[in-house]
Amino acid sequence: MKVKFNRFERMAGLFVLGAIGSFGFAIAGMAIKQGWFDSKTAYQTIFESADGIHVGSAVHISGLPAGEVQEVDLTDDNRILVKFYVFSRFENKIREDSSVQLLRPFVIGERIMEVTVGSSSLPQLKAGAKMSSVESMDLLTLMSGRKLGVYMGSLSEAAGNLRALAEAFLNKDRTESLVRLFDRLTPLISNLNTMSIEVIKLSKQATRDEHFGVVFGELATTTKELNEVLPMLKIKAPQMAADTEKLITNLAILTEQFKLLTPAFTEIAPELPKASRRALEALDESVVLLKAMQKSFFLRSSAQEVREEEKKRTPASIEPAKGSTNSNP
Question: Chain-wide mean pLDDT for the chain?
Fold first, then answer.
């Protein structure tokens, strides 16, 4: 039995077939547009936090869709491992200095992974290699509950510290002490300024005509000479120490002897001026006696000979040649 379709049924069938064909063409166009049939190159990266990133998140290169996230996992060190792929037509743009950054195209929206274009002078990054990541902060991430709670806690602690500071300054004595401190800052700064000027002058004097270099040169010379002398001192140090010990011992003995003689000197000290005067008088009397004896008949000729010899001897001791000629006329 042959089934016949009327005109309306045939029109409906054609409409359904057209709809199915259009749907197929739309799916195929979407697949081509999304790159479902394009070859892909896989990469991976590490983030500290993966807020807003999930499987299927878009990967862009210079603002163009270039791939998507394949896997998001937590590593043993509590970091986020993100595996993603890039269409092969963008593979030559990814170099060893390329990096991945999480950002939002708009203020409000889903986060994407932005891959930077690498330098053409560097080699291309191999497939499956780990790409460096750059942590970023946006407004929504900043205002998220996890971040905002930490910030509010820190702000609360800061407010508590400010409150304690304000309560401390409610004391009148502390406020006056702070005012006095600020009053003393001006002369302190003035003195520091004066000191810095003097230090600058001193440094100029030290560096003028290379005085500083000359001083260090002389110091180096002195140090070198000391290095030469010290070994000799080290060798002679035991003997010097022994001699020093003997000297100190002798000085101690001499001091003890002086202690014994001191009372005797103390007793005769008042008589010393008188004794010295009498010694001078005795010397004068001896001179007078000798002169008187020289004038005697027996000693006059001998005294004359002695005077002549003395006159000859004194020049002879100074000029031997002349003395010899005078002695042999």
Answer: 78
Beta bridge partners of 72: 82
Tell whether 209 is covered by a domain.
no
Per mean pLDDT, which of 14-18, 35-39, 106-110, 183-187 is the most reliable? 183-187
Query: Considering only CA atoms, which of 128, 123, 191, 150 is closest in space to residue 49?
Result: 150
Residue 328 has pLDDT above 50, yes or no: no
Number of H helices, E strands in the chain: 8, 7
Full domain range(s) for residue 301:
273-327
DSSP 173-195: HHHHHHHHHHHHHHHHHHHHHHH
Q: Who wins on pLDDT, 68 or 233? A: 68
> Using CA atoms, how far apart are residues 83 and 69, in angstroms rounded to an integer?
6
User: What pTM was estimated for this model as a whole?
Assistant: 0.39
Task: Give the closest residue to 117 by CA, choosing from 71, 86, 81.
Answer: 86
Mean pLDDT (whole number) for 137-157: 69
Q: Is 55 left (phi over 0), alpha (psi -120 to 50) or beta?
A: beta
Is position 55 within any domain? yes
Strand ranges in the chain using DSSP code E only, listed in sequence order: 40-47, 58-61, 64-74, 80-87, 99-103, 112-115, 130-134
Which of 79, 105, 136 is at the close of a domain? 136
Half-sphere exposure of 261 (CA within 13 A, CB side): 6
Q: Which amino acid, 274? A: K
Q: How far apart are CA 160 and CA 301, in angstroms?
A: 126
